[in-house]
Write a structure and sequence with these properties.
- The chain has three domains: 10-191, Growth Hormone, Chain: A (Up-down Bundle), CATH 1.20.1250.20; 202-255; 260-505, MFS general substrate transporter like domains (Growth Hormone, Chain: A).
- The chain has helices spanning 11-43, 47-75, 77-96, 101-129, 133-165, 169-172, 174-188, 203-226, 231-251, 261-265, 267-297, 302-308, 310-327, 334-351, 360-386, 395-432, 439-475, 481-492, 495-499.
- The protein is mainly alpha-helical.
């Protein structure tokens, strides 16, 4: 991190546009969830392909985040930031004008690509713009709050646009966001001299990591249509193992690795990344099932669907700020993360009881409240520990790994749980078909089979979230963050703690 003796006088104005860009990226992760049933009906997207509307964005974003961070270091953060904004706006326009499944999926993947340029460059710009400790904490606090609220804004806007305008506006809304942020960035953001990293780009690492992750998620998706033992499915899984294995070998040998292995080799950080990845598998899958359950089975309007998730967002913020943040310096991280993920798993287990006539107040709301409080409590110590104790030169990549584990976990979760749910639906129909002899009976069977598939998918998500709690308790063995701070200060040189709130969501 360069030492700038005179702070940039326009840094607080710059924060406005950096935060606006972050809001757009976070908002986009949830806004399309609400619009997905309408888009599926309008464009004729098959049930097997619908998860790719979410997965294409999550995989491109998560798979290329490390690459985006390195590009920002090499090419310049301001230039990368503005390029990311323009590209994101163009990809959003393409999505809003989509006339078929392929065009929509391509736009989502492109949004992910440019989001992967945008997110790391935004964080880097904050880091080099705010060098004084108190100002830095305040700036990152504002940035983190906006990132946290983005999910709730996305759910509400998704409902409003889908109900009163059209699902296409969930894409078009990004264009004014990006235009304002790009114009502001060009006018007021100043990147200090000498802040670029002159090392070479790890091209083999980029190629191996991206192809490996694509093979992994596509393998889960093909399993749904071709079966788990089909030749293509097995070939994709084998390719993923080989490519990601080769990535690890390459990263251990190249001079300037995309992902320095020392970042993930630490037991605590590795445990945090693993637990967050597993938790994301469960959470992303659950969102997919609940959105379709509330709209398709319960008949909720898109805006009511968005409002239904707000209590979970509220308890997530409460768990994060009132439980996680307050206890973080008093209780070892694993005793917040483990019980937190377990509480969320209990909330998810509650939701396995949904049926065609389940009441929102008694059957859904308690589960959402438990999930929110649990995830919020686990989240704060996980974010802190994920970047604690790393050297200053690795703080950015450690932060990027948090988002990468969440995004890739989400992509795998959406594909895997959708596959398991569709298989359960087919099995249910096959075993109950004999009794359905009239048109009405066949229709009822279809509804029951769909609800059963949601129950099975959520049950798997519950198990995965329980595994996340187990990983946190077993692998994360650090003491209280404040106690460890003194011991780790020499490596991080203060940069680490500054990075903590950055990759919050």
């Amino acid at each position: 991190m360069p030492d700038t003796t005179t702070p940039d006088p326009r840094r607080w104005k710059a924060l406005i546009f950096i935060a606006l860009a972050q809001l757009m990226v976070v908002l986009d992760a949830t806004i399309v969830n609400i619009a997905l049933p309408s888009a599926q009906a309008d464009l004729g997207i098959s049930d097997g392909n619908r998860q790719w509307v979410i997965t294409a964005y999550a995989l491109a974003f998560g798979g290329l985040l490390l690459f985006g961070g390195r590009i920002a270091d090499l090419w310049g953060r301001k230039q990368t930031f503005v390029t990311g904004l323009i590209g994101f706006a163009a990809a959003s326009a393409l999505g809003g004008m989509a006339v078929n499944t392929g065009m929509l999926l391509a736009s989502r993947a492109l949004q992910g690509v440019f989001g992967a340029l945008l997110a790391p460059s935004a964080l880097s710009l904050l880091a080099v713009s705010f060098t004084e400790a108190k100002e830095r904490a305040k700036a990152f606090g504002i940035f983190g709050a906006i990132a946290g609220g983005g999910g709730a804004v996305g759910l509400l806007l998704g409902g409003v646009f889908t109900e009163y305008l059209n699902w296409r506006w969930t894409f078009f809304v990004n264009i004014p966001f990006a235009a304002v942020a790009a114009a502001g960035a060009i006018a007021v953001i100043h990147e200090p001299e000498g802040s670029r990293n002159p090392s070479k780009l790890d091209i083999p690492g980029v190629i191996l990591a991206t192809l490996g992750l694509v093979s992994l998620v596509y393998g889960f998706t093909r399993a749904e249509s071709d079966g788990w033992t089909a030749g293509l499915t097995l070939a994709l899984f084998a390719a993923a193992v080989l490519l990601l294995g080769a990535f690890v070998l390459v990263e251990g040998k190249v001079k300037s690795p995309l992902l320095p292995l020392r970042v993930v080799a630490d037991r605590n950080r590795g445990g945090v990344y693993g637990a967050l990845g597993l938790a994301s598998i469960g959470m992303f899958g659950l969102f997919l099932f609940l959105v379709f359950y509330l709209q398709g089975i319960k008949g909720y309007s898109p805006i009511t669907n968005g409002l239904a998730f707000l209590p979970m967002i509220a308890t997530m913020i409460t768990g994060s700020t009132q439980i996680g943040a307050r206890l973080m310096t008093r209780v070892p991280a694993r005793w917040l993360m483990g019980p937190g993920f377990l509480t969320a798993a209990l909330g998810m287990a509650w939701l396995t009881q949904i049926d065609t006539d389940t009441s929102y107040v008694t059957g859904i709301l308690p589960g959402l409240l438990l999930m929110g409080i649990g995830m919020g409590t686990a989240f704060m110590p996980a974010m802190s520990l994920a970047t604690h104790g790393v050297q200053a030169r690795d703080a950015g990549v450690a932060s990027a790994m948090v988002n990468t584990s969440q995004q890739v976990g989400g992509a795998i979760g959406t594909a895997l749980l959708n596959t398991l749910a569709n298989s359960a639906k087919d099995d249910y129909v096959a075993s109950h078909r004999a009794g359905a002899t009239t048109k009405e009976a066949i229709q009822v069977l279809g509804i029951k089979a769909t609800v059963h598939s949601f129950q099975v998918g959520i049950a798997w998500a519950t198990g995965i979230l329980t595994l996340a709690a187990l990983v946190a308790v077993v692998f994360v063995n650090a003491g209280r963050p404040n106690a460890a701070a003194a011991a780790g200060a020499g490596d991080g040189e203060g940069a680490v703690e500054d990075a903590v709130p950055v990759m919050a969501h």
